[in-house]
Design goal:
By secondary structure, the chain is an alpha/beta fold. It is about 60% helix and about 10% strand. It has two domains: about 80 residues, Methyltransferase, Methionine Synthase (B12-binding Domains), Chain A, domain 1 (Orthogonal Bundle); about 120 residues, Cobalamin-binding domain (Rossmann fold), CATH 3.40.50.280. The radius of gyration is 17 Å and the shape is globular. The structure holds cobalamin.
Length: about 220
């Protein structure tokens, strides 16, 4: 299948919550040696974005959302190891600790950012979702990370991004880490307000930002 045939099918598989199709299409892309970042960006992401719109329009409910999230995971389970394999040996970006903050179980966007950072040459330590704030700091200290990436999808949990920055400050560690924030309710203005080092609206922009921060820009 050509890219122009694959991409809409990938999007459709996510919208339909079809795990088997999502994974099979990903395997096809891997077999063809396609640029997997482009595959994620142009194939799968438009699908999950459409799911978000259908949910907001009241056409999709929790069961559909969960199926779509599972389909996204099935595709990324094929793509992630391949991205890692293709980038083995080149980790010039430094170490990054990433997770979705305490109280928040949304992890699709965070997983995309983690995959793209990994593919972009960073050594990524993904703590998962609903991560206690102390764990971000403990892990960053443990692995000698230079960056902490915090995802939050709820207006009630984005405040944990602010809290984490406060905790770093209280422990005299604020200067040691670049803190990046993201997720649907976050914005550049929010990042400035809470004293984060940066905000990016999607995974591709997140990699660009992380690279420029890692380079000391
Ligand atoms: C899928 C989904 C779910 C799934 C999550 C599955 C999963 N494993 O993640 C399920 C069904 C479990 C779910 C549950 C809930 N959800 Co929900 N969910 C969504 C939905 C439809 C899509 C989110 C998504 O995956 N988007 C696709 C990804 C690719 O986009 P993204 O997450 O924004 O990530 C991108 C960028 O933001 C950025 N990014 C993300 N993280 C980071 C981090 C950094 C550092 C950087 C730089 C960038 C970055 O890059 C990503 C990739 O491009 C949104 C609606 C929406 N439009 O966002 C609601 C939404 C987020 N959910 C919402 C709600 C209310 C809930 C529930 C509370 C519902 C309930 N009553 O139980 C629960 C939350 C439970 C909890 N404690 O967390 C609300 C939040 C409202 C608010 N303002 O707070 C939303 C906005 C829907 C709505 N309009 O009401 N949800």
């Amino acid at each position: 299948m050509t890219e122009s045939e694959l991409y809409p099918r990938m999007s459709e598989a996510i919208v339909a919550g079809d795990r088997a199709a999502a994974a099979a299409l990903a395997r096809d892309a891997v077999r063809q040696g396609l640029d997997l970042l482009e595959v994620v960006d142009k194939g799968y992401v438009p699908g999950i974005q459409k799911v978000g719109v259908l949910w907001e329009q009241g056409e999709y409910f929790l069961p559909e959302l969960i199926s779509s999230a599972e389909a996204m995971k099935a595709a990324m389970a094929v793509i992630d190891p391949e991205l890692t394999k293709r980038n083995l040996g080149s980790r010039p970006g430094g170490r990054v600790v990433i997770g979705t903050v305490e109280g928040d179980i949304h992890d699709i966007g965070k997983n995309l950012v983690a995959s793209m950072l990994q593919a972009g040459g960073f050594d990524v330590h993904d703590l998962g979702a609903d991560v206690k704030l102390e764990r971000f700091i403990d892990k960053a200290e443990e692995v000698g990370a230079g960056m902490i990436c915090l995802s939050a999808l709820l207006t009630t949990t984005m405040t944990n991004q602010r809290r984490l920055i406060g905790m770093l400050r209280d422990r005299g560690l604020r200067g040691k880490y670049k803190v990046l924030v993201g997720g649907a309710p976050a914005s550049r203005k929010w990042a400035e307000e809470i004293g984060a080092d940066g905000y990016a609206e999607n995974a591709v922009a997140a990699v660009k930002l992380a690279k420029s921060l890692a380079a000391g820009a």
